[in-house]
Amino acid sequence: MITFLVTFLVSLMVSLGLTLVVRNRALAWGWVDQANSSRKVHVRPIPRLGGVAIVAGFFAPLCALFLVDSGVGSLFRSHDQLVWGLFGGGATIAVLGLYDDLHGTGARLKFSVQIAVAIALYLFGFRVELIANPFGPAIPLGVLSLPFTLLWMVGVVNALNLIDGLDGLAGGVAFFGVGTNFILSLARGDVVMCLLMAALAGAILGFLIFNFNPASIFMGDTGSMFLGFVLAAVSLKTSTKSGTAVAMLVPVMALGLPIMDTLLAMIRRSILGRPMFSADKEHIHHRLMSRLVLSHRSAVLVLYGLCGLFTLTALGLNFANSVQSAMLLIGMAVVIGVLMRKLGYLDLRRAGAVGEVRRKNIRLRSVVKDLNRAVRQTGSLQELWAAVRPLAETLDVARLELRLQHQHEGLTDGVVFETQRPAGSALPLEVRIEVKDDEVPLGWLQLSWRDGRAEINRDEELALELVADTVAERAASFMARAEAEPGRVVSLRR
């Protein structure tokens, strides 16, 4: 136990100190998460590279074991496949997350790297080989082991990413998962797994001191994807040492909250016709705040309590027989059902409106797709505005403005396009979407509704963000041409 405590403390100190350093440097260099979207909960820019401290805190005491000539160090080094699988895969996922935090990356690159890492881990022996059956013998997967392993690894990595929506939530959820794996490993006498969990617990706790509400730093994708990776990989190892009656049920329960939230998000977006990888404010933590009128901190504490319940269920499944496991699962299903009803996920009164929302979103996605295609084919700013202008009718806005501007030799030059249409007489709701190219501001899209709405629909905001990105990409090329050949370009002013 002394070794585990030392590992925990070393990881805690490294994470604590590095989180402070990263926070100050990120603020100085402008590496912050802007509060520029309706789905953002925070109201001021927050540094987003705290995951670097988590990664360093986790690896620091483990790397020291390679340098220490001791029985524990020798035991750790003897598990070469486990060690190199976690080190290599963890470093790759961390680099992917860091790149995404600094520059942004698409879903295709993320999934490609995650799948490649999952395949490598499969070859290192991290595998889902049995599916639990509390009412009978476990079901061997055979040739389906690889796709189930990929689904588990990629799913958990992204589930932790999705749950990272409130201060301290993702770190706290991961901490409960770490605690579950540590207790199970300790009960089985698995020293190496206990070391890994002690290191991860210290790294998480050192970061949470700065991340709990009100947070002064976020973990970003670097931290959330790395935590998801380590927990997914370790869970595969712990599940292979479980009784066959509960194979994979224990890790599923240990990570019950992020898995449940991810499944709900996939079902919700599929039913409502939204892009599968779009962001919204309908996650469990968002609904706790809106439906139950909980504060930011109270919502997180409630979810900590739910994670504690999942942890107790996971531990109970590990030590229970088949009948007891079935009773635990039924009890947990009742708790989840009550929670889903309280949060409005099972509200049948809204079922009639779902079809209309789905049709509207599918039409909106089609319009945005055609509009973006037209924008990419434009050859001038006037043509670009002609491509964007139909957006006013599609979204039924009273006024649509596109303003583009840039600085050249100390002077601000630009162009403004505007269209107005009769669309209500209520007090206006004005929304401005920034047009940026690689974080360089080029202008904005400004829309005004007079139909009495109090806020913009999230699906419409998402559509506008996609249009703004395409406009920025095309407008940047026009402005670059103006810089290169100023004599051939005539500036337009309002």
Which tags fit this structure?
alpha+beta; Beta-Lactamase; 2 domains; four-stranded antiparallel beta sheet; two-stranded antiparallel sheet; 18 helices; globular; disordered C terminus; transmembrane
Could you give a quick summary of the protein structure above?
The protein is an alpha+beta fold and 494 residues long. It is built from 18 helices and 8 strands. The chain has helices at residues 2-29, 51-64, 71-78, 80-103, 107-123, 145-163, 169-188, 191-211, 220-240, 249-254, 256-271, 284-291, 296-319, 322-342, 351-376, 381-388, 391-394, 458-484, and strands at residues 32-33, 46-47, 130-131, 139-140, 399-408, 411-420, 429-437, 440-449.
Topology of helices and strands:
Layout: H1 2-29, E1 32-33, E2 46-47, H2 51-64, H3 71-78, H4 80-103, H5 107-123, E3 130-131, E4 139-140, H6 145-163, H7 169-188, H8 191-211, H9 220-240, H10 249-254, H11 256-271, H12 284-291, H13 296-319, H14 322-342, H15 351-376, H16 381-388, H17 391-394, E5 399-408, E6 411-420, E7 429-437, E8 440-449, H18 458-484
Antiparallel strand pairs: 1-2, 3-4, 5-6, 5-8, 7-8
Helix pairs in contact: 1-2, 1-8, 2-4, 2-8, 2-9, 4-5, 4-9, 5-6, 6-9, 6-11, 7-8, 7-9, 7-13, 12-13, 13-14, 15-16, 15-18
